[in-house]
Structures are given as C-alpha cells and as structure tokens.
Amino acid sequence: MFVREVTPDEGRRLQKITKTSKQPIRMRRAIVVMASAHRQPVPAIARLMQVSEAYVRQVIHDFNERGFDALDPKWSAGRPSKVDRATRERIACIARCCPRDLGWPFSAWSLSKLREVLATNNIAEISRETLRKLLKAEGVSWQAVKTWKAGTDPEFATKMDRILDLYDHRPADGRVVCVDEFGPLNLQPRAGRGWFPRRKPRRLRATYHRTQGVRHLLGALDLATGKIHYRIRDRKRWQEFLGLLKSLRARWPGERLYVIADNFSPHKRAEVRDWAADHDVELVFLPTYSSWLNWIESEFAALRYFALNGTDHRSHGEQDAAIGAYIRWYNQHARPKRDFAVNSKIRRPDYLPKVA
C-alpha cells in the first residue's frame, strides 16, 4: 500500500517539516509519508525508520484520511495529579512554618524531613522531587535567613520623606551630595571572585599579623553628575569630615549644598554644624539604623567588589592608588543619579506598619 498522490506544494511542505520541525513525532511521520510518496514499500520504510509495519500503515491511512492534521502528535493528559489544590496550599503553608512550632525537634525543613512528616500525617505520599517542584510552583524557595534592625528614630518617616524628596526633586538653588566614610582600609588579602581554569582558583596568602595600621576613605557622591569625590586619611575625626565639606564647598561656590549623612558623632560636632550654617551647607541626617537610605552606600559596595576584592596590597600607597584608579574610571563613566528605589517597599504608604 502507498500514500495517496501528493501534490508538488504538499511535497515541499513535507520536506520543510522533515528539516525544521522541533517535534520528533511530526518529523518521523512526515518522513514516512514522503517515503511512501516515492513508492517505497511498507517493509522498507519500517526498516529505515526502525518502527513496526503496523505503525507505517497507520500513518499512511491517517494521512490519506485527514491530510497534514494526521502528522500532529495527539498529546494525552497524562497521569492525574496525586495532590489537589487544597493539599498543595496546605503543604506550602507547612513548609513556611518553623518545624518547632508544629512540635518537631528541628529548626528547618529538609525535603526528606518534610516528605516524612507529610506521609506520617497522611497529608500526601509524594517523592522528594515532586515536593521540590510543588514548593517551587507555590512560590516557596530555600533562602538564607537575614537580620533586620528596626529604626528607633521617632522622626523616621519625616526624615525618610525629606531624603526621598531630595532624591526625587533636586532643589533648584543647589545640589544634593551624599557623604560617608568607607573603611577601615587595612592591608590584608581580600577574598573575591574571578574567571579561572576549572579547579585552579587564584591563591592568596594568609596573614596573621598586620602592623601597618588602617586608613579611611571619606567619600561624597554628587547626584547631579553621579561622580564620586574622595579623600583618604589616617583618621576619621570631625576635623577630617570638616575638611571634606570645605573641599566640596570650594568645588561648587555659590550653590547651596544639601549634604546627606548618617548619625556618626563627628558629623554632628558643634564645630561642623556651626561651619555648615555659616557657609550655606545644610546637613540632612538619616534616620537611625537607616544607612540604606544613603545613596553612596551602593557605590561603596561596587568599590569594594571591583577595587578591593581579590587583591593583596602590601602597602597603603599601593592600595590607595588602586582605589583612586577605580574612582577615576568610575567618574569617566558616571551618569546623573535618578530613580532611587522606585519599586521598593519603602515607597508604599504601609511601609512603616509592615516594616518588620
């Protein structure tokens, strides 16, 4: 038996399916039809495709009756799920609970322990892999526990709104500058990541005695340009902080400076406050335990990652030069800072009630 007469257009379509189809079943059936159209006998096609002769005859019959629809695989619904919707939600709820709260003597679930508990309580008899997929589908994932420090500032909302307003609406009479200290900068091998041959990571020495002291970087991020201005000093007293403010004042004469800083005691020194009031500099302090509101913190994280991690500087001069080279490169690629934490939970009206 052979397939019906195939038109030239149908032949070209069959040939295209055999070359481009991503479904093996559809491709195999198209090859059977093409071979039959070339008057290949059923036994020869079965040997070529390594299928039974009954399969070849069925494909030819189906194509003669239904045309190209016969090439499409008919997917079955598969095995019915052993876990219904309510049970899936219950399993996800159990996984989110601490085991001790449910009377079990451990502080975290493993897939094996959770599977055993589900079976013991006649909730579900499923494998670990099925349990893993179920939890993933329900939005439950294995994550590290993080710490959180609650802000105790009674003016938290007022101060946060003030800073966010400066970020979102730059004042027309001046510029916003975020300042902070970075350090201490001691001399030690710093762990990091890089691209190395497999199983041959870069090795750094181990140190036990560090006798060259530490230094500190005082940085200022100008939001109008996105550039970082910095000084590296041996100490970070109010005198060094005031020196940084004076350098910023000299850099932008005639503009009012809105300096965002944390509550480090040298920042609130009377001498610093008096000088700022006399030189058109407004010090805008963060709420307590809210350093994440200072935009320069993200730039310090990048500085640590790209300039210090994976290094082993032997002198402060060498380390200072590496930091300076990175900041110069950063400033050459800097852009104005905009859109601070646009989609963050801190922007929601109910942030404070739900902050914990």
TrEMBL record:
Residue ranges of domain Tc1-like transposase DDE in the record: 175-311
Superkingdom of source: Bacteria
MF terms in GO: nucleic acid binding
Extract the InterPro entries matched here: Homeodomain-like_sf, RNaseH-like_sf, RNaseH_sf, Tc1-like_DDE_dom, Transpos_IS630-like
Q: Which NCBIfam families match?
A: transpos_IS630
From the Swiss-Prot or TrEMBL record, give the protein name: IS630 family transposase
